[in-house]
Amino acid sequence: MKEISLPFIAKLALVLLCILMLGYLAILGKSLLAPLLFSLLMAFLLLPLANFLERKLKFKRSLAAITSVILMIAILYGILYFLGNQLTELWADWPLLVQQVTTAFHDIQSWVAKTFHINEYKQKSYLTDGIEKSLATSAVVIGTTLLTLSSSLLFLAFTLLFTFFILNYRRLLFTFLSTVFAEEHKAKVNDIVREIQRIIRRYVTGLFLQMLIVSLLMIITLSLLGVKYAILLGLIAGIFNIIPYLGILTALLISALITFATAGASSALFVIFAFIGVHTIDGNILMPLVVGSKVKINALFAFIGIIVGEMIWGISGMFLCIPYLAMLKIIFEKTDGLKPWSILLGEEQKATPRKRKVYRITKKIKLEEAE
Prior knowledge:
single chain, about 375 residues, mainly alpha, 15 helices
């Protein structure tokens, strides 16, 4: 059969149409696809444990899968329980915190009155208008909060179920991927699946290790600075750090506001410097060391991925965008004709002296051949 060659405009139109259709389907299927993709990452993480229970301890496949999921639930429960205890301590001191915020607010009012010559009565009237508008929408805020909580519980339930099913039927899924493609592509497909499995498992493990190290660094740093709720703020920094770029910024704002309310502006400034220092260590040392360069996406496309993920699936999309961009990068590397896209997603490769020497020799040989 003669291959039909389409003009560039037609190919571009088809590609854009496919992207729009996939994006629309992703928005429609958020309730199903988001927990499914998240559970796929958890399954990659739990796969070595499930294999160990099945091969070494002779567990049945379903029992090994459910044991792995129960262990994951226990670890998550421990983290949430510890975080809940820290939040209880903050809640117990909440009246004192409100009083300190009120005092700081009056100090700011006096400073504004002296600097900008706006008397405190006008400031209060501006604030009263803002509070009335906020109270008018309080019912909407409460409803949204309850809806978010119920959606999170449903998301967690679906994730746990999908993780169990993926672990239990992992060989069936792998066989399907091996047989759905033509025979000449089977070896390459198997290679891509194993590479994705290895890299993503390393990524998820490294992500949790990175979260632990960032939490410990922030707890130690904030404790040395004498910041109240150092453990809670350190945990918030580590957990929020899972979301690239925007997560650490959100944790910084929360920590700076709480520190400002409890210890004043100077301590809040030190906290900001501490966050900047730990984030610098995390980005330049921890991330390449514990996660590796194979899944490292350049900052431009990582940021674009985060924005698109948030637009489609909210917070879950912001978290999922980086590992699945890494999967696409691996697929592009292994597929002929798509390697330029892998280069576009990855970091710029710096030429070593050896590579530059090889390049000069190769160029010289080609020039000699041309002559």
